[in-house]
Amino acid sequence: MHLQQLRVLVAVRDHGTLTAAAEALGYGVPTIAHHLGSLERHFQVRLVERDRRGARLTPLGAVLVDEAEDILNRLEQAERLVSTQRDLGLTTIRVGTFASIGSQLLPRAIRQLRDRMQVQVEVVEAEPTDIVELLQAGNIHAGLIYDSADEPAFASPELDSTVLLEETYRILLAHDSPHAAEREVDMAALAEADWICSRDQAETSDRVLRRTCRSLGFEPKVLMRTDDLNMIHGLVAEGLGCTLTTPSAVDTRFAVELRPAVQDLAVRRTSFVRRSTAVPLAVDELQHILLTILRQRTKLDTATA
Question: What is the CATH T-level fold of the domain 3-86, as seen in this structure?
């Protein structure tokens, strides 16, 4: 099957006769008929009905032409993108990230990257599981993900991973919660509390929460599942529930408090991941910049502690 065969099928749908389709594509009618015949032999099914009134797609032809049009549109977009970047001398990389760390680190890192080289950076916001799937499918060049240092979730020979940051999980509470005044919160005291959890039950904080609660003899009561950080903070600030998170994910605009637990909660590890095959030079440079930014931040935090 060739792209030109798909273009012929679209033209037949749009123009209604083989003659009109041939004129639109700059072909002769025999060439149009040849492409249609090859396409029908490939699928072993009739795709176009032809009679004195013209040519129209069969139901199966209509199914195929919808997909074909999407393929052709995406190809045209890709050709435009490559041509534009060729003319401008640009490299484009696509980077996946989860919301909290992405908003803190990536804008600064991208600015520094673009100061150093001609590069266009497209950011895709997604949860770690989705980022890994996009990487493995070749749809992005690199990503920021998180998992538990004790229970790595994304080890794969297809991926290279570099740890950027490690933080212990803590409990996010409303500012006026009675537990917010405590130096450490005993998770056993939250047996009747409502929890805001991720939509993905395999997400790291969900697994840590279930494991800790079960070790204390109860199941966490889930109020709501969402990955919207603003929604999570709003629900917690209103005293409707609590959640597990890390210092880098806290939005101080909300009336919330972050407290350590008496129990030993897991360490959340944020990593820069990329395919183990060759990647654009800009990916290596972005990784270096992120590591530098975090080292500088660690020194500043130590100096002001």
Answer: Arc Repressor Mutant, subunit A (1.10.10)
Q: CB of 98 within 8 A of CB of 126?
A: yes
DSSP β-bridge partners for residue 270: 146, 165
* Structure-token pair, residue 36: 């249609």
Would you call 123 helix, strand, or coil by DSSP?
A: strand
Structure tokens at 207: 């697994």
Count of C-beta atoms within a 10 Å radius of residue 275:
18
In CATH, the architecture of 90-165+273-304 is 3-Layer(aba) Sandwich (3.40)
Asked if residues 217 and 223 have their Cβ atoms less than 8 Å apart, the reply is no
Indicate the length of the chain as a whole number. Answer: 305
Amino acid at site 118:
Q
> Hey, what are 213's tokens?
């609660």
- For 214-269, write each residue's pLDDT tens digit: 999 999 999 999 988 899 999 999 999 999 999 988 998 999 999 999 999 989 89
62-79 burial code (b ≥16 CB/10 A, e <16): eebbeebbeeeeeeeeee
The model's pTM is 0.62
Give me the residues of the chain with pLDDT under 50, please: none
Closest C-alpha to 195, from 219, 176, 214: 219
The CATH number for 170-265, chosen from 3.40.50.150, 3.40.640.10, 3.40.630.30, 3.40.190.10, is 3.40.190.10
Residue among 158, 157, 187 nearest 171 (CA): 187
